[in-house]
Write a structure and sequence with these properties.
This protein is an alpha+beta fold and 130 residues long. 31% of the residues lie in helices and 18% in strands. 3% of the residues are buried.
Amino acid sequence: MQDLIKKNVAVFLGPYITHHPYPLVCGPYNIPYLIHLSGSGNRVKGELYSVSTEGLVRLDEFEGTKFGHYDRLPVQVQSEEDEERLWEKKGKLGWNEYRETDGKQYVMPGDRAKDSCILDDIELFLSSIQ
């Protein structure tokens, strides 16, 4: 990954954790394998990268996807740090339901600023004064 970052085909986004539990096991040579059995195992911590098409081709070659060594599959992840900061920002209080009155304040994606990114919006929300 460091080589891909130096060549500007990957960017480190930070530490993340899987939304659902998966089995993570080590095989020969202590190579880690995330087994695609959602709901089994544990939520797995790892690093998230944004990778260009060129970088993705290089990763697929490295991982041996064309030989069937790995499958590239979508996995939902979330930032632990953002969850904790959002929890703190809301006074460490949570809801037990999302009510109809709360839903009326929901802003549809088409009604949000055109250049808006939810991750940037969360960061702005977290950095604002309470």
